Structures are given as structure tokens and as C-alpha cells.
Amino acid sequence: MKPMILLILTLLVTSFSLQAQDLKLGIPVGKLDSISCQGGEFNKNNNLFLTHSSYNYFMKSTLEALNKFFGAVIALNIIHQIISSAGYFPLDMPILKTLYLISISIFAIELFLRVIVERRLSFLISIDGLVLINQVFFSVYDLRILRLFRLFDIFSQSRFLLPTNTLIKTIIKQRNALLGSQIMVISILLVVSTFIYFLESTVQPDVFGSIPSTMWWGIATLTTVGYGDVVPMTDLGKLLASFTMLVGIGMFALPAAILASAYYEEIQKKNFLVSFEAIASVPLFQELPIGAVGKINEKLQVVLVSEHETIFSKGEEADSMFIIEYGKVKVEIDQPVYLVAGDYFGEMGLLGNAPRNATITAADDTKLLELTKSDLAELSEEHPGLFKELELSVSQRTSN
């Protein structure tokens, strides 16, 4: 048990140390001779790689694996909390209690290192700290379910949670409009609760005896839930209840409409579907016939990257090239180069069958169109003009 804990602690410290340095992989030695603002591959007399690249890439992979490990531990804890509430696999079982203590230790170490790395009290750190303090000192309630937020954070860039992130961003952007609509709902709730109190307090003093008590009826009626436990008896009360239900349908449809329209705009902005016009506007494809552009449209895959996210690292295998549809990427060298919409990168390693010779990260929220090596070979056979254009671009960069 002790060697395992020491191993986990060592990996945690090493990985979070890399994270604290922003994962600056592939530190260049000297200046690179060939720099192009049209692409992201570079050359220096065939000395393309550093001895540190493979080590840094290994440590980055280790950090990603540890994050997935944390996610798995959190998921297992949440599942156990749900199952144990039904009386299955209680914590008083020796093996489960041991695993529970190990998971708490892992959470504590991870939280401590995250505080050191981030150097601020973020929302997630506050929630995780609350869960940990409760588990260690109080154990009043089992709050492990709150670590669901951390689970979302770990897997936030997965293709399954990416739309969820878009929805959360939409809610944050529209918070003022949503707050305004809720203020209107609360105002209507107060008004109808007051009037139903006037109409029903003498008939049903036990349930409509005060305005706060009538607000329960107001909430159930405005939301059109209608539990039926509290209903008006007078004719005017029933008429007011009918009017309240009609108003409630419209008032609660308003936030849904705000979110739906804003979410649609956000999706359109990110544009998950590759459009024919966007591909045709890329300089690399402008000289190709329409049929070739249509073929490329079928082959390209959309890749959405967040700001500061690494697209690929120096020393990795070159298995695809990328075209920037919108956003900006940064080529991490001595004098960083920024590529914008319409630029492409990754083709030099692809054509030369060589590993990546530079690390490229997103300088902004960016949409990339990825063309894999196999698809490029297939397209080049059908449309030699594309391959010649890429070879010409590579030769120009090499000569520069």
C-alpha cells in the first residue's frame, strides 16, 4: 500500500510541476532557420528535434492519464454514493472503507497541488475543499456528488461534453436577460399570491392565511404543475388561477426562448458543420475545381480547440494537417508566429513523413479543419493539383 501511495504522489508532483510551467514542451535550442507565416512546420538543417521532446511528451501524456484517473475515481465515488443510499455496498465493509480512505487521500493530494498551481481560490477548488473538509472532519452529509463539477472539468474537452460547455457559456452570457425574466416571474408571483390571499383567506384560512403561505400555490400554478393539494374555492379565485396558469406558460417560455436563440447563435458561431463556402475560401483550395472541393468537404473533420489548448507537440507523429477556419494559433518558437483564418499547418511533416518539429497551441477559441494522412493520399491521387500545391508550399518554405 505505501509504495503505491508514494508512486501516485511522485507522479502527481511531477505532472503538476509541468502544469505549473504551462506545459512548455520542446524548448528550442538556437534559432530556427525557416519560419513561415503561412504554416506551422519549421526546419533547421535537419536538426529538428530536441532530446527533451520525447521526455516532455511522455510527461504530458502522464498528466493526461492522471486526469483521466482522477475522473474515474470521482465517477466511482459518485456511483458508490448512489448505490450505497439504497443499502448496497455500505462503507462499513472493510475493503470499501479502505478504498474510500485511499480516494480521500488522492483527492486531498490533488486539491493541495491544484491550489499551489492555480494560486487562487476558484469555484472548483472551493467546492472540492468543502467536500474534503466535510469528509475528513464532519461527515454530516455525503457530499461526494458535488465533485461532479470536477468530473465535468476534467472531461470538458471531450466531444460529448463540448455542447454542454457551449450551453454553460450561453447561460453565462445571457445571465442578465435570464435574471430580468426571473424578476418578472417573481413580481407576478407576488401579485397573484397577494390577490389570491384577498379572495381565499376567509374561505380557507388554513392554506391561504398569509401571503407567504399562498406563494406555494402561486409557484405551483405559475409553473402549471398543479399538485392539487391547495386549490381556490371561490369563483373569483378560480378565475385568477386560470389567468395565472396562462401567464405562467408565457413567462416560463421566455427564458427557454432566450436560451434557445442564444444557444443557436453560439452553435452557429462555432459552426460544427463544415460548410462548402468556408472550404472554398481557403487559399490552398481556391485553384481546385468544384468537384475537388466537394471531395475535400467530405474528408475534412472539424476540430474545436479552446484558448491555450495544445493542438500538437514537438516530436509527435505527423498524421494530419490542419486548416484554420476561424481563430488564431501560436507556433511556439524563439520568436512566436501566429497563424489566422485561411492559414494551414502540419503539411511539412505529413509530406516528409517526419515527426512534428514545433509545438502549436491555440491563441484563441479556434475551429480547425483536419485532413488526415490517408485522406490526403486519396485526394492527391484523384486531384494531383492539391498535392502539387502542397509540395510548392513546402519547397518555398524550405528555400526561405
Query: What's the rounded overall pLDDT mean?
Result: 76
- Rg, please? 29 Å
Strand content: 5-15%
Strand line-up in the sheet with most strands: 1-8-3-6
The CATH architecture classification of the largest domain is Sandwich
The number of helical segments is 14
Q: Give the number of domains.
A: 3
- SS content category: alpha+beta
Q: In angstroms, what separates the terminal alpha carbons?
A: 58 Å
The oligomeric state is single chain
Compressed to H and E, one letter per element, the order equals HHHHHHHHHHHEEEEEEHEEHH
CATH superfamily of the largest domain: Jelly Rolls
Number of strands: 8
Fill in the CATH topology of the largest domain. Jelly Rolls
Q: How would you describe the shape?
A: flat
Helicity level: 55-70%
Task: Please render the helix and strand layout as text.
Blueprint: H1 2-20, H2 51-84, H3 94-118, H4 123-138, H5 148-154, H6 162-173, H7 175-200, H8 211-222, H9 235-270, H10 276-280, H11 290-299, E1 301-305, E2 310-312, E3 320-326, E4 328-332, E5 337-340, E6 344-345, H12 347-352, E7 359-362, E8 366-372, H13 373-382, H14 384-399
Antiparallel strand pairs: 1-8, 2-7, 3-6, 3-8, 4-5, 4-7
Helix pairs in contact: 1-2, 1-3, 2-3, 2-5, 3-4, 6-9, 7-8, 7-9, 13-14
Structural notes for this entry:
By secondary structure, this protein is an alpha+beta fold. It has three domains: 107 residues, Four Helix Bundle (Hemerythrin (Met), subunit A) (Up-down Bundle); 98 residues, Helix Hairpins, CATH 1.10.287; 124 residues, Jelly Rolls, CATH 2.60.120. It contains 14 helices and eight strands. Strands 1-8-3-6 form a four-stranded antiparallel beta sheet. Strands 2-7-4-5 form a four-stranded antiparallel beta sheet, with no helix packed on it. Strand 4 and strand 5 form a beta hairpin. The longest helix is centred in the middle third of the chain and has 36 residues. The protein is flat.
